[in-house]
Specification:
This protein is an alpha+beta fold. It is built from eleven helices and 13 strands.
Length: 317
């Protein structure tokens, strides 16, 4: 009986590590006959594991989804990763409504961990401090609704509360969920504006009814992470300007953050779309590019540049 039980656990572990197995493959892995594999599969089904089987050349076994959650087998690294993730979700995951459930699941997992894994987790826990989330928490139901629309490639309809306080109804093709800087964001193709937009998930209220299916698009700018970072950086700018810089575009790109969009004019000049909290800080920052530039049609920036020029002239004696 012990040998059979150990073999069943090994069979279950194999079914969880790969999507499809055929009978001969499993038989070779376990050192038994295909007849024994069929009997063991029946035993797993009796224990509540939904093992699907298909006959024929392309047939085989696949662990499916059942009506209830059966026990899972985790190796050491998977168990540690699950415990770390549950602890993070319970303290600073930025998702509202799952803290208690995460901690309950963590308690169940830690209760059955072998001593050597328990020591690893204890050392990690004692050596770290979890800071409270700085961003607003998002309801788990909102994130799962967005994720389901992304998975099923269905248009998403939602109410959106903007930073300025206005409310609007939006229709978009959801592309990806992003978690950065303590907040959750949705990158989507806005159908009304025919362009990419980034929405804060905590300001969204998805409709219960999704729209028709859509064909997936390539990442915006072919760089999703860069697109999101540039958008978030630019969103904080209070003063914006478009300046002409008398230097090659490569020279400027190497000296500015990713949020600054640089457009080459020729081999010796380029435009830079820049911004900062105010014109004074922008004037100071432009001097760090180490190249001549024109303030363009921005009188406030030009005034700050004249004030700085006078101050530096006096400092030079």
């Amino acid at each position: 009986m012990l040998e059979t039980s150990a073999r069943l656990l090994r069979l279950l572990a194999l079914l969880q590590t790969r999507r499809d197995w055929n009978g001969p493959q499993l038989a070779r892995e376990l050192g038994v006959t295909t007849r024994t594999i069929r009997k063991d599969v029946d035993r797993l089904r009796a224990l509540g594991y939904p093992v699907n089987a298909a006959s024929g050349v392309a047939g085989g076994y696949r662990l499916g989804a059942g009506t209830s959650l059966p026990p899972l087998l985790l190796d050491d690294d998977e168990a540690v990763a699950a415990a770390v993730g549950l602890r993070a979700a319970g303290s600073s995951g930025g998702i509202a409504g799952i803290e208690e459930a995460s901690l309950r699941a963590l308690a169940k997992l830690e209760q059955v961990l072998p001593p050597h894994l328990h020591r690893r987790l204890t050392a990690l826990h004692d050596s770290t401090i979890a800071l409270a989330p700085t961003g607003p928490a998002v309801e788990a139901s909102i994130l799962t609704a967005i994720a389901a629309a992304i998975r099923d490639r269905q248009r998403l309809r939602f109410e959106y509360h903007s930073h300025s306080g206005s409310n609007s109804r939006r229709s978009a093709e959801p592309h990806r969920l992003i978690h950065t800087r303590g907040r959750w964001y949705l990158v989507a193709w806005d159908l009304d504006r025919a362009d990419w937009r980034t929405f804060r998930a905590d300001r969204m209220k998805p409709s219960a009814h999704t729209g028709p299916r859509f064909a997936p698009r390539a990442d915006p700018d072919d760089d999703l992470a860069g697109y999101v970072e540039r958008g978030l950086d630019q969103a904080t700018w209070q003063h914006r300007a478009r300046v002409k810089i008398h230097a090659p575009a490569d020279h400027v790109i190497a000296r500015v953050p990713p949020a600054v969009i640089v457009e080459a004019i020729d081999e010796h000049t380029c435009y830079a779309n820049v911004g900062s909290d105010n014109a004074h800080e922008l004037a100071l920052w432009l001097g760090l590019i180490d190249a001549d530039f024109d303030a363009g049609d921005d009188p406030e920036l030009a005034d700050q540049l004249r004030q700085l020029a006078a101050r530096y002239t006096r400092a030079a004696g």
